[in-house]
Design a protein that fits this description.
- By secondary structure, the chain is of the alpha/beta class.
- It has two domains: about 10-340, Rossmann fold (3-Layer(aba) Sandwich), CATH 3.40.50; about 375-515, no CATH class.
- The chain is about 35% helix and about 15% strand.
- It is built from 16 helices and 24 strands.
- The strands form nine sheets. A five-stranded parallel beta sheet has the order 4-5-8-3-9, sandwiched between helices. The protein has a three-stranded mixed beta sheet with strand order 2-1-10, with helices on one face. Strands 12-11-13 form a three-stranded mixed beta sheet.
- A hairpin with a 4-residue loop joins strand 1 (about 45-50) and strand 2 (about 55).
- The radius of gyration is 24 Å and the shape is globular.
- The two termini are about 25 Å apart.
- This is HNH nuclease domain-containing protein.
Length: about 525
Amino acid sequence: MTSGTVLRGPLGDVAQRAARQEGVHVEDAYAAALCWWAAAVAPSATLPTRSKDWPCLVWGAFLTGDAQPSLTTTLTEAGLDTHRFRRLTRHHDITTLDKLRIAWTKASRTMAPGTDFSMLLTGSPVARRGSGTSCDDFLTYKLRTAWDGREYRDPGHRLRSRRGAPARKAAKVGVLWEMPATDWPYRARTDEASSTRFLIFLRKTPGERRSTPVPVPRPSAACRAVEELVRIYEDLTRRQVPMVITDEAAAKFWPIQLSADQFDDLGPAANQFARLDAHTHRIAAALALAEDTDVVTGGHIEAAWSVVARSALDRSRLLCPDALEPVSVALDKIGGEVRAAAGSPRVLTLDELSWRGGHRTVHTPTAVPEHAVRDRKGRITRDGAVAQDVKDWHRNQCQMCGDILRIPGPQEAISEGAHIRPLSHGGPDYTGNVLCLCPSCHTRFDHGALYLTDDLHIVETLTGTVRGLLRTEPRHQVGLDCVRWHRARWEQHIPPGKRPAVPDGPAEPPALRAAEPLAHSARLEH
């Protein structure tokens, strides 16, 4: 059984104060305080990686039993009141995208133009209609992009701003949901891309024992903790903070980055545990900021992992109860490796983020396994979130021809996620192996009519004509190994004298590459 949650810093003091209320377990209060605090500081703090800056957002869904008090109300009574955190607004029961738009409009009107702010969604996203429930798919999609760091504002605001209305900033979106377990909307495999962006917590009763005893703080200590958080928050509203990490923290984070491998034997259920590293990184950053530092240490990683591990167990209990025992074993193994890992307190630069085992943090912002996921019969399956992320980043614009295939209806435009090296040929299922293409370019690329050079020039295979450069996006780092594999596959069809006068680097034969085991690229985030 995994160890209990490690309460740390001022947020731990606030949680202990909140847990004095009847019906509130200290671990639930602590996790909720993390979601609350992360939403508050999200406009000021970023998690730099080699591909982009990620937000310091921790999203939690607390699944409640009968007559359990609201954690949001409990935190307010413990001192985490939005009136004291002036750039954080709270919005209850946002169940549709239209309600989110209205909430942003109201919140933005309370902020001076140009002011960064954040919105905390509380209550539930589930709407009740008669005896049934429903969840707005458009809201779900918009929240996915918000977790990834895309700020939200009313789409019509930009047009009004051009007409002379005051420009208002987009908002970071935090989530602290509370609902009955039966209302949790993201259950099917098709919803894993949404489900894994949340930490799921099955509410505990205060009578449940913790593995790590926690002393009850004096009220004065909890009050001082709140005052300290308010002071830190006020300071953060005046500056931007790029978080940094120590060598020790990097060492402890390494086994968490490889955590997806521990769940490979679970079949389709393994995809439910794809973003444990991303959640750990975000929680660790939030804990560091609550202690008035921009340095993530090994202690922050350990404390963050204890929260993530508890949530992973609850996720298994809710969504894949048959896998609870192997999930618990896997989490224990990862936790042991995290605690045993050691390193120096020296702060690493971004270029030094080379993790244990010789793997460097690179371009896997969705935190999915880089090897192909297989079903119970060994057949390769795709994680739809990978292709969807790439299409979202490029806003459905073809990276080769630039066309946007527009259609009537709310979807507005469509595109296709094209694997550079097919999964059936040993290709990794991560964003670096996927392009956003229109159906025409997708077909031509898959059948070898087009290929890419090392510097991402698009070349017509039969004529050698260079069509231009592949459209790129900072969050989307194309995998050079995959590009070379694709080019080598069709190299025999390039007519003599038709090679373009642009560098294309060495190309390894597909047969040799396919026989090699796929290496794991470490992911600092997502």
